[in-house]
Amino acid sequence: MPDRTPGLFRLLAAIAFGLCLGTVWPGSPAWATEAPSAAANPELEARMMALAAELRCLVCQNQTIADSHAGLAEDLRQQIREMLAKGMTDGQVMDYMTERYGDFVLYRPPFKATTALLWVGPALLMVGALGTLAVVLRRRQRMAADAFDPDTPDDDAADDPTR
Amino acid sequence: MKRYLLPFGLFIVLAVFLAVGLRLDPREVPSPLIGKPAPAFQARALARPEATIKRDDLLGKVWVLNVWASWCGACRDEHPVLVEFSRRGVVPIYGLNYKDKREDGMGWLGQFGNPYTDSLFDPDGRIGIDYGVYGVPETFVIDRQGVIRYKHIGPVTPEVLRDKIEPLLKKLNA
Questions:
Q1: Domain that holds residue A127
Q2: Cβ distance A33 to B165 under 8 Å?
């Protein structure tokens, strides 16, 4: 579980790779034991892991909840497990998570006004780059041949009287 | 000269984007709960295991919910700020004792002072999940209708209290 110790220490802690392993965090709580996995129902467990792989761990933001050993990720896996056991659908579980943590928890955020730039940005840049290239090439095509610098002959060629 | 204007413009746009990006803290995830009703809870009081506190008990007043734990170092930094604030009695502060042991939490309050009207005891962090808590400390401001109006992530500093929380409380209490 993250411990929001401010300043330099926090920065260092954030850089450290091992930070996501609850064990390295200062004041690591004694309760951070692995939640018992409901291996009794492998089908449910597989669904839980599939969902967890779509969700971002908010403590170590570049890991999924499925990958992370942070206390919160364990809690959320347990939460998903229990919700599925109650018969909730995958969609309901995802809604539950986004209601609490926002679209940020989704590794594939939905397309809407606030995420539009995220989705179409790369395509826009590509179109812009190709468009610029096309304009430049066409402009050059229309130029007279003498608009370009002549090839500078290399030394050998300059010495050759036949040229 | 003119031919450099476009690349220069592009460079400026890019620089602005990067500068803004540098100032954003990716650890501060905006809460989707702002403007939404505070999730219902029914919790044991930390100091009185026999008593329960419900969200609806707190309807009709503006209150602050502060998520804390005895194992959290940053909570210790913000604690004097909360103790001082509670002395002024502006609004009740409720604690959410997150993933803690009862005796540890009680001992911590005994040692550093208790700014809380009551602390909700949340040993397995379920109430925390409902409130979208992903670290400690976090602080919420909840209005008379039970709607979350503000969330602060990380320790409350005197500046945050003065510039963000207190003006909001004044508005809500007006």
A1: 114-159
A2: no
Say if residue A22 is in the same domain as residue A91.
Answer: yes
Judgement on whether residues A38 and A74 belong to the same structural domain of the protein = yes
pLDDT value of residue A21: 40
Which residue in the set B71, B100, B134 is minimally distant from A59, CB to CB?
Answer: B134
- Identify whether A2 is part of a domain: no
- A117 pLDDT tier (thresholds 50, 70, 90): confident
Whether A1 and chain B come into contact, CB under 8 Å, resolves to yes
Per residue in B55-103, pLDDT (tens digit) is 999 999 999 999 999 999 999 999 999 999 999 999 999 999 999 999 9
Q: Which CATH number fits the domain that encloses residue B118? A: 3.40.30.10
Are residues A37 and A93 both part of a single domain?
yes
C-beta separation of B33 from B129 below 8 A: no
| Interface with chain B: mutation pick from A23, A55, A94, A100, highest number of B CBs within 10 Å | A100
Q: Do B155 and A29 touch (CB under 8 A)?
A: no
Say how many Å lie between the first and final Cα of chain A, rounded.
Answer: 78
Q: Which residues of B touch A22 (CB under 8 A)?
A: none
Residue from B173, B119, B116 nearest B142 by CA: B173
